[in-house]
Amino acid sequence: MNKSNTVFFKNAPRILSSAAVCGSKESEGIIGSYADITLADDMFGESTYEKAECKMLSSAISLVIEKSGLKEENIDVLLSGDLLNQIISASFAARDFTFPFLGLYSACSTMSESILLGAALVDGGYVKTAVCATGSHFASAERQYRYPLELGCTRPPQAQWTVTGAGGLLLGRSDKGIRVTCGTMGRVCDFGVTDVNNMGAAMAPAAADTIIRHFRDTQTGPEDFDLILTGDLGALGSRIVKDLTWEKGFDISNNHVDCGEIIYKVIESEFQGGSGAGCSATVLNSYILTKMNAGLYKRVLFAATGALLSTVSSGQGESIPCISHAVRLEV
Amino acid sequence: MTGRTRENYNRNYLNYVKTQDPPTKHLKNCAAAFGVGGLICCIGQFIRYMFMYAGLTGDELAGATSVVLIFIGCFLTGLGVYDRIGRYAGAGSIVPITGFANSVTSPAIEFKTEGWIYGMAAKMFTVAGAIIVFGVFSGVLVGLIYYFI
Description:
Helix content of chain A is about 35%, strand content about 25%. By secondary structure, chain A is an alpha/beta fold. In chain A, the strands form 2 sheets. In chain A, strands 1, 2, 3, 4, 5, 6, 8, 9, 10, 11, 13 and 14 form a 12-stranded mixed sheet that branches. In chain A, strands 7-12 form a two-stranded parallel sheet.
C-alpha cells in the first residue's frame, strides 16, 4: 500500500496565463474584482442556459490565450470538461477553436484533473502548450441534477449553490510564472453517503485521502504549504476534512481554505457555500493565482473534489463515489 | 479493495456526519408554512366571497375560485416570484392549489428550450405527474373505504 500515486514534473511546467468568467451573484463576492469578465445577466446574451455556459467556457479559453500573448495556432491541446451530460459545454466550446480537444469528466474536480494531465503532457514534451479549463452554470446544473428553477421548493440546510462561472489556465514551458511541480492522482472514495444534498460530507473523505497521500508521497506536511485549497466542500465539508486529516495526524486547520466556502459574500441563502466545476475554476484562476503572482502564497496544494454521481445512480439508491486530484503549485 | 460489499460502509463516518449536520429549523419552517399557507387560503376565501356576491353557487363557485388561484400561481411562477415564496414558506406554498400550478408551470418554462412537443408538453408533468398519480390513487382508496363503511 506504500506505492506512490504522485507524479513529479521534473521540468516543472508553468502557468503562462489564466482567466476567469463569473456570474453576477459570484461577482459580489471575493472573486468579483479579480475575474476578467463578470456577467450582468446570467444568460450571457444567449437563448438557453446551456448555451450561456458554453459561451462562458469559450470566453474563458479565448481570454487565456489572449492574455498569454500567444496565437491560437500555438496552442497544442485543450483539456476540458463540465458537469452537463456528455460534457456538451466543453465539446461545444471546443468547436470554436482549431486546436485538438481532450474531453474530461471528473465532476467538480475537473480543474485539478486537467492541470494534472496538462502538466504531464507538457512535462513529457508531448505538447508545448495546453489549455486547461472548466465551468458550470447554476441554472443548467439545477435543471440536470435537481428541480426546475421556478419550482417553489425549499433547500435543505446542507445544500450548496452551483457556481455560475468558468475558468481556465495555460500551461507551457517558460522561465517565469507559477510552476506545477507535482500532482497526486485521486482514488475513488465512497464512504456510503447517499444524501445528494450533502455533497460536502460525501466528498470530504476523497479530499482527505488525496491530501494525506500527497503529504506521505512527498514527505511533506501541512506546515510546508501556505495554502491547502480544496474545491467545493462547503462549510460543512471543510469541517469534516479538517477532522479526517487531523485523525490521521495532519492538522490542516491553519492553512486550509475551501473555494466553495469563500466564494460567496454571504453564505446564508446558499447555506454551505458554492459548488460545481466552476467554483474551484473561478477562485483558482482569479483570486488565488493573482495572489500567488503577487507573492502572497508561495506554495499551494490545490485539491479539487468531485462527486461522481448521476441522477440515475442516486435515483437507484446508490451512494455517492467521490474523487479528488491534487496538484502542487509553487512560485 | 475488490470484493468489498456495498453494505460494508463506514458506519462510524455516517454517524459522525449526522452529528455535524446543521439542524433543520422545524419550528421556524412550520411557522412560515402556517403563515403563508394560511394567507393563500384567506386569499382563496376572499375570491370565493367575491364570486358569491357575483351570484355563483355550488360547483361553479368552486371551479371559478380554483381557476383564479391557479392563474395566480402560474402568473407568479412566470414572474419568478413563486419560487422565492416557496423557498421561504415550504409546505405552506406547496400544498395549496397554487403549488400544484407552480409544479406544472415551472417545468413547462424550464423545458421550453427543448421544443414545444418533446420539451414543454412532454416534460410539463415531471413533477406534477407524481402528484396526479398518488392523488388519484389515494382518492380511489378513500372512496373504497367510504363505500364499505
